[in-house]
Design brief:
The chain has a domain at 204-299: Alpha Horseshoe (Leucine-rich Repeat Variant). 64% of the residues lie in helices and 0% in strands. The chain is built from 18 helices and no strands. The chain has helices at residues 3-11, 19-22, 30-42, 45-61, 68-74, 80-89, 99-108, 112-130, 136-150, 157-167, 174-183, 188-200, 207-213, 219-231, 238-247, 251-264, 267-277, 282-295. The radius of gyration is 22 Å and the shape is globular.
């Protein structure tokens, strides 16, 4: 089928969207991109939403496709849902030229879903700055925009919590206090973001908090704590994670614990995962198989916890802050 015919099929709002045709939009030539842009502008809003969301899904399951030019175009769409989805599709785009547009959207877009998406996307530039994979001035622009958003009391909670999650990559001293304040928030969704941020943070002082939160009555907080323990390869919580795997009432918490055990590794974690793999629970057995596969890529004897844990039972001290 010719490229023009595929474009017509994609743009036919009254017909089903053929996913196979979308692959033709990867790595388009300049001439093809011009043709696509003309067709895109003629699509109705709902069709644009469907197309961009499906393109995002394809980028998540295949590393061989590249729809970045389409996502960059869609960032300027008149529809907020299209703009937000397009930003999400650029999760692997590392070009510094995107920082300024994202900062502008974070500060000026009328839609909270777009501002939240921009806040999330800026996190990768904070990380790249910490890894010295880009110039410090550019990553600093992203950090300053996120900090400004976090401090804006009239900003929505959703946007501010995404900014907290993204700033967590920064090694600046103020970030510790930002995460503390989020943890002490009266809102449990912000608390969940604080635990997520602890997993991203390079600050080794969060071990006891994460361990404690594995017992939180709120399953969302147990989930985030389990994931963060895995990010830190926190070996002392392996028995606790095993208890979550077999006894937690929430399926997502169980799977997060399985994933964390696969990241932590070691004999005890492997034993738990092998038991889980032999379970009649197909969902857990499949999750355990994936975690065991991850463990198989490493020599378990070389597993080292990344987190320097405090001695004894000393509690982490928090400043009294609010967010």
């Amino acid at each position: 089928m010719k490229f023009e015919e595929m474009l017509q099929s994609i743009g036919r709002a009254d017909g089903p969207l053929n996913v196979r045709h979308l692959y033709a939009l990867s790595e388009m030539t300049q001439e093809q991109m011009t043709m696509f842009q003309d067709e895109w502008l003629a699509l109705d809003r709902e069709r644009r939403r469907v197309v961009v969301r499906k393109l995002v899904e394809l980028t998540e399951v295949s590393f061989e496709v590249n729809f970045d030019p389409i996502f960059l175009l869609a960032m300027g769409d008149e529809d907020s849902e299209v703009r937000a989805a397009a930003i999400g599709g650029l999760w692997e785009y590392a070009g510094q030229s995107l920082i300024a547009p994202l900062v502008h959207l974070l500060h000026a877009d009328e839609a909270a879903i777009v501002r939240a998406a921009a806040a999330t996307a800026l996190g990768q530039y904070v990380l790249l700055g910490e890894l010295e994979a880009m110039d410090r001035a550019s990553s600093k622009m992203a950090e300053e925009a996120l900090c400004k958003t976090i401090g804006q009391e009239d900003e929505t909670l959703e946007v501010r919590r995404r900014a907290v999650e993204s700033i967590a990559y920064s090694g600046e001293s103020d970030v510790h206090h930002i995460i503390q304040a989020a943890y002490h928030s009266d809102d449990e969704t912000m608390q969940a973001s604080s635990l997520f941020a602890m997993g991203r943070s390079a600050d080794p002082g969060w071990g006891q908090v994460l361990s404690m939160e594995l017992d939180n009555p709120n399953p969302e907080l147990r989930f985030e704590a389990a994931r963060a323990c895995g990010e830190w390869e926190l070996t002392r919580v392996v028995p606790h994670l095993g208890n979550l795997v077999f006894n937690d009432s929430d399926r997502e918490v169980q799977q997060a614990a399985v994933w964390a055990l696969g990241r932590i590794g070691g004999k005890d974690a492997r034993d738990i995962l092998e038991t889980c793999h032999g379970s009649e629970d197909e969902v857990l057995a499949t999750s355990a198989a994936d975690a065991l596969d991850q463990l198989g890529r490493f020599d378990e004897s070389s597993s080292i916890s990344l987190l320097e844990e405090p001695d004894g039972d000393e509690d982490v001290e928090f400043d009294e802050m609010e967010l």
